[in-house]
Amino acid sequence: MVRRFLLTGMPGSGKSTVVQRCVERLRSGGLTVGGISTPEVRRGGRRVAFMVVDLASGRRGLMASVDIKSPYRVGRYGVDVEGFEAIALPALRYAEESCDVICIDEIGRMELYSKAFEELVRRILSGSKPVIAVVHRRYASAYRRYGELLWVTRERVDELASHIVGELL
What we know:
globular
């Protein structure tokens, strides 16, 4: 059975930390891991942007920023859909073709402005590879049919990372 883990929870609950710990442990266990992460960028203690990072190659680009003028907006952030797609789509296609495990951090409003991303994610989630994905809680019910939906809290970060890695190694 293909294992797919969908992480959701409140902001700051540790969803991305679970993914990072899984990536590190799976790689040290000999598996190849690809996909994307979307870390925040802080300036003077305030979040001002989000990057998109290819987990296999390390390529990075700006996905959203308070400084981007765009018709695609989430709160105070303008979303650069083309910039996001230029990193995310090749990263996910590479992971789908060449890696043992695919990570997607995250499936949220900013990312879903890209219809190509949404289609690729649904294909990956219906495919034959194990997946660890962060799903914004607003979309959890729409994606829950693709895998095991896990609610993340700060107290459960280690437990969840161990559960996922234990299932995949």
